[in-house]
Structure formats: C-alpha cells, structure tokens
Amino acid sequence: GDGVGRMGGDEFLFHIAIDNVSELENVEKRITRAISTLRRGEMKVYGSIGWAIFPDDGEDLKALIAKADMNMYVQKKKVDK
User: Fold this and answer.
1) Cα gap 75→3, rounded to integer Å
2) pLDDT at 81
3) How far apart are CA 21 and CA 16, in angstroms?
4) Is the CB of residue 49 less than 8 Å from the CB of residue 75?
C-alpha cells in the first residue's frame, strides 16, 4: 500500500504503489497541488519531488532513497532559478 513518513527536517518519504510509471505524473500533480495550498502564517509552502522506481533505480531502500534524493535536488535547482 501507500505510505508517507518524515525523514527529518523538511523531508518526507512517500511510498506509492502504481501499476505503470506513466501514473507518476498524476501522482506528482496531486502532491504538488496539495502542498501549494499549505501556508505558515504569511509564508507559502513549496516543495520539490524526486522519484526513484524499484527496481530500475535500486533494489534496496537505501539505494532508492539516495536516487530519489539526488533527483529531488535536480528539481530543486530548476525551481530556484
């Protein structure tokens, strides 16, 4: 099943079971839309998402987290520009 957990600080890990990689775009849109509604006082909350797909990006949790983290920072750089 699906799940979410806090990795630490402002990083969260989502485990999402999908049948087809093409579903990731819809999942990303739903997560991004949900995050965009969050506010902390006057500050708007933003997020960056990095994906890792089993087994293509790794066959154990450590490798998958490392790949997702790397992909997240690539996305974060694009947003910061």
Assistant:
1) 22
2) 62
3) 11
4) yes
pLDDT exceeds cutoff 90 at 66? yes
- Three-state SS string over 14-60 comes to EECCCCCHHHHHHHHHHHHHHHHCCEECCEECCCCCCCCCCCCCCCC
Provide the β-strand partners of residue 6: 12
Distance (Å, whole) CA 52 – CA 59: 10
**Tokens 């790794």 correspond to what residue?**
58
pTM of the model: 0.77
Q: Which of 6, 42, 47, 4 is nearest to 28 (CA)?
A: 47
